[in-house]
Write a structure and sequence with these properties.
With about 60 residues, the protein is mainly α. The protein contains 1 helix and no strands.
């Protein structure tokens, strides 16, 4: 009987730990998403700048 009570008392603690781990995992994924967005922004702006520079060279010369 005592082992059943021990298991029952550990269930809320286990749920609390699961929620904390889930929160930390979601936060880490959010940081990864922000970093990926910054990298994609750089890679999307760089070709636009290089094409614009390439197209404006004949007009200058």
């Amino acid at each position: 009987m005592r082992s059943c009570r021990d298991i029952e008392s550990l269930l809320p603690h286990n749920e609390s730990l699961f929620q904390k781990v889930n929160f930390l995992m979601q936060a880490a994924m959010g940081f990864i998403n922000i970093e990926q967005n910054r990298i994609i922004k750089i890679f999307s702006v760089f070709p636009w700048c290089s094409c614009r520079r390439h197209w404006s060279l004949p007009a200058m010369g």
